[in-house]
Automatic annotation (TrEMBL):
This is Creatinase. Residues 5-131 form the Creatinase N-terminal domain. PANTHER family: AMINOPEPTIDASE, AMINOPEPTIDASE YPDF. Residues 139-342 form the Peptidase M24 domain.
Length: 359
């Protein structure tokens, strides 16, 4: 068990008068124990209590879970796992349940009256996970370093006669060569007008033509942690509007990054980029929030948006990714990951943001 992380969770539980919690999300279980358990349809629960008598309820199908430094309660496929769990829960006290626990387990537990009340405990785990420790930050620096290398190779591949899907396949080969653990999300390779869809799915047979933007939004997993970045380049030539849109987007990225420091709200970061884009006449074409938190998952709790008035604290890692999307024409996005520091931020992506014409 990562006792320091567990202690932070217990502290937040105490502040909210929560005596016991069911941790069920595999990412949260890994974060607190250091062991990956992917239960599939089977029940998995790390049961945390203020008394410190933590227990891991786990199917015998996963014998490696014995490595977890907590009392194990084993069950098999012929047993009623929810009934077993119910016998251990303090029925006269509130139970917090974190996210992504199937209703068939939660409702079964509620039907057994295993707890005086059930509350959403997701925010407790999320709040602790938001602030990365030194070990996590070092891993994420390396994940972004690998991403920079991969991005540089993808930009070079723009010179070749490859469709979007073939570019995506090449990226998988690059991750394998670099020693990454695969994609942190399905990569977005978008040519020309396809780039006007921020979450475009790569298309087999989609070809680029001179003057097209090429959006390259990629990320890898390294030692279980994610990276994420976007660069947009031009193929063979740059149309006048494309150049203008690119420079506005890049400068919006830089303005938001410059504003990152402890005490600033995430809404203010969003505004720094959004207001700049709006002032230049493209506000309605910036159709998404400025960024998202990242760590074990590519998108974690806590975003960079106009409605998030939480303040930046050191150790938070998030994206800064303004974009302008002109339907039927082009799309431009420039994305970096940043670590909030004591006096500003550290930008994890080093690959150039200069306007590049490739091919």
């Amino acid at each position: 068990m990562h006792q320091n992380r567990v202690n932070k969770v217990l502290q937040l539980m105490a502040e909210q008068n929560i005596p016991q919690m069911i941790v069920s999300d595999p990412y949260a279980v890994f974060y607190l124990t250091g062991t990956w358990i992917h239960p599939g349809e089977r029940m998995l629960v790390l049961y945390l209590t203020q008394s410190g008598k933590h227990k891991l309820f786990v199917n015998e199908l996963f014998p490696f879970a014995a490595a977890v430094d907590a009392e194990k309660v084993w069950f098999n496929d012929t047993q009623d796992a929810v009934a077993i769990l119910a016998d251990y829960i303090e029925k006269d006290k509130t139970v917090a349940v974190d996210k992504n626990w199937p209703a068939r387990f939660l409702i079964g537990l509620m039907d057994r009256h295993a707890g005086s009340a059930f509350v959403n405990g997701s925010e407790i785990i999320d709040r602790v996970r938001m602030v990365k420790d030194a070990k996590e930050l070092d891993i994420m620096r390396e994940a972004s370093r690998l991403n920079d290398i991969a991005c540089s190779r993808m930009v070079e591949l723009v010179k070749e006669d490859l469709d979007e899907a073939q570019m995506g396949k090449k990226l998988g080969e690059i991750w394998e060569e670099l020693g990454a653990e695969g994609h942190s999300f399905e990569p977005i390779i978008a040519y020309g007008a396809n780039g006007a869809d921020p979450h475009h799915t790569t298309v087999k047979g989609a070809r680029k033509k001179p003057g097209d933007t090429v959006v390259i939004d990629i990320g890898c997993i390294y030692k279980s942690y994610c990276s994420d970045m976007t660069r947009t380049v031009f193929y063979q030539s740059v149309p006048a509007e494309g150049k203008k849109v690119y420079e506005i987007t890049r400068d919006a990225n830089l303005k938001a990054i410059e504003k990152v420091k402890p005490g600033v709200t995430f809404a203010a970061l969003d505004a720094a980029a959004r207001d700049y884009i709006t002032e230049h006449g493209y506000g309605k074409y910036f159709t998404h929030r400025l960024g998202h938190s990242i760590g074990l998952e590519d998108h974690e709790a806590g975003d960079v948006s106009a409605i998030n008035h939480d303040v930046v604290v050191p150790g938070r890692v998030f994206s800064i990714e303004p974009g302008i999307y002109l339907p039927g024409n082009l799309g431009v996005r420039v994305e970096d990951l940043v670590i909030a520091t004591e006096d500003g931020c550290e930008v994890l992506n080093r690959y150039t943001k200069d306007l590049l014409v490739v091919g």
